[in-house]
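Exam revision sheet. Question 4 asks you to relate a sequence to its structure. Input first:
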Amino acid sequence: MRLLKVLLVVGCLLLASLFTLARLDFRAPETEGEEAPPSPVQTGLVWLFERFKLPDMPAVESGQPTETPKEPPLPRPVDLSPARPGELPTPSAAFPNFAAIKDIKERKKRFFEFMGPLVEAENLQVQEQRLQILRLHEGVQKGQEMSVYDRKWLRQLCAQYRLSTEELSVDDLFQQLLVRVDMVPPELALAQAAIESAWGQSRFAYFGNNLFGEWCFTPGCGIVPAARPQGKTYEVAAFLTPIHAVRSYIQNLNAHPAYRQFRALRYQKRLAGERPDGHSLALGLQKYAAIGMEYVDKIRTVIRQNKRQMSSAGFPELALLQEESPSLWAALWAFYSGHLEGGAG
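Answer key, structure tokens:
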């Protein structure tokens, strides 16, 4: 009982102390403009507020939100609207100035070193698609049902490669995809890039990343050739980066009806277990240029004269290639063209 009384007395003393601290000092400053002298102990709620208040935050004016980092906009491949008429468009930041390299051997070396990784990267993308087609075909042949995702992927692939699925059996569909979805021999791509871009010196390459002479037909889609005939509306396509040009080129050879012969020759190489090579497949590109077979000969000449530089640019297997007889491949095409009529596309 005595202990309880002692505790009550101590509690009352503590409460009295707290009430004393909680008293607010409402006294005004003694002189206007001067602060009252600080008390030895800051009192009550004033002390609590000063003890636990948050640090001051910078003020933000209304109507001026805080700035957030923004990603820089992607550059256009070419400025199609120069400041003044007659000016050259802005050059592509992604494309080297090969015209500034005066030594021809050095220019060729630098050109192949620049183009080689781009061609290899895009060919790998196509080869991944081809491997997936082979896996799916193998599963179907074993009686496995394709998933909804796989069917959707195949439909998208057919649309990408301009392949109509009407009146095609499952086996024919896979065969047609394997004809189209395949790599382009790197020596062929390098040779055509050298021809079409003048070893990277053309204004279409420098200002528009166009390495393969591809056209487009929408106003403003590219660069208007200086010698375009009156009444024509085509332009030389401009690409965001050089690798976009390589991707478009491979897609063009793999899907455009004009290069059906190219795809058939490549497919026969695959069936024979051989590597598709640029020298033989060049025969299927007679429609790439108006000069026809002369263009094929030009491609083969570039490949033959530059094998060593191409192999040094990341394709050592090119140094081992042997030239094929044009007459042999012409005979092969004549034989298979009838067999593949309505088939390989």
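Marking note for examiners. Residues 101-201+240-339 form one domain.
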